[in-house]
Design goal:
286 residues; alpha/beta; Rossmann fold; globular; seven-stranded mixed β-sheet; Chemotaxis Receptor Methyltransferase Cher, domain 1; 10 strands
Length: 286
Amino acid sequence: MKTSTLVVPPAITDADFQKFAEFFYRKTGIHFDEGKRYFVDRRLVERIEATGAGSFRSYFVALRFEADGREMQQLVNAMTVNETYFFREAYQFDCMVNHLLDEVVARKPPGSRIRIWSIPSSTGEEPYSIAIYLLERWPKIDDYDVEILSSDIDTTALGAAQRGVYSARSVQNLPAAYLRKYFTRQGDDAWCISPDLVSAVDFSHVNLAEPADTRRFRQVDIVFCRNLLIYFDDLSRRVAAEALFDTLSPGGFICLGHSESMSRMSSLFTVRRFPDAMVYQKPLGA
């Protein structure tokens, strides 16, 4: 009679968790406290088993000294959360087409470039929502050269964004007319976004905690950085806020998530209150 061998998952000790959390914070700016312990431990064990490392110590040593960064990227993909859907917090998109863009184009002649950056892109619902809003709700769309940029640290999420296939839950807030116009149904529970919209968004891999990654973004008119900085601590939030400030054109705007406040992170921005939303502006003379 054969006996089965019980495989015991590698244990993550308190010291292991602390060591990993400090390392991950240095690499990404994302802070994990004890409240995230179960989530972090579970994902760490999954990566230890996937790589065959056998223990946290072996895995961590290999991670720190790997030459190509592949496992670090796999780990980042595992540790990031991508919870989003089309037209999420749509009042800020209303503000964009009703107020922000009017101020932006007041400083630009027709035919000029307008740059809108969505970070994190997650699986693409936000940048595609921006594109749909512009096409449907902004009358001057044909008068300007609009670039929609979208970035994320998670390469799996970026791949999903570029494929553009969404569940019924993701598109549930879209008006039926928009769904018919910009999507094709695939099976019972999937919708594929128009290839024209996919080509309208420039996706890229960006780590907001890495200065070299954000340095190539300049003269951006509107940034959507929503529900990302809640995962940062105070120091990394200030660093990220300064990086985002540098990407903006003078007079440019940044939209944060409803629970986030730039006033607690940086004094560089001016608070602007519009009928639709409160946003933050880089002063014109900056």
